[in-house]
């Protein structure tokens, strides 16, 4: 079922409950249509996204404020039910806006060899791109 996480903020809970217990997905109310989601793949990782979500993905070579079309859509759940690709859905896209680029938290690395007076310290900060999901089309 697509509506797993509960009603969105401001949505009528009784309308959501009615919609989530109806059998075919086509006759659902507007409260249940907020739950269209997609599973996308970018940067070697998979993300479950809905319209309006903000997420940090591996760094993309795109300017801040630009629109990005993600074509590696693995699955889409919406009015027509769940569609799963093999491995990707043909013609399905997710459109997102690049909000910013940044660097993640520092991960400390410490290598130590006992009895050798040998220590090595280092760190790593992963670059990321923050996206806001604008549209999902199947």
From TrEMBL:
InterPro entries: bL21-like (IPR028909), bL21-like_sf (IPR036164), Ribosomal_bL21 (IPR001787), Ribosomal_bL21_CS (IPR018258). GO terms for cellular component: cytoplasm; ribonucleoprotein complex; ribosome. GO terms for molecular function: rRNA binding; structural constituent of ribosome. One of its GO terms (biological process) is translation. Residues 1-22 are annotated as: Disordered. Keywords: Ribonucleoprotein, Ribosomal protein, RNA-binding, rRNA-binding. The keyword Cell division does not apply. Belongs to the bacterial ribosomal protein bL21 family. This protein binds to 23S rRNA in the presence of protein L20. Part of the 50S ribosomal subunit. Contacts protein L20. This is Large ribosomal subunit protein bL21. It comes from Sutterella parvirubra YIT 11816.
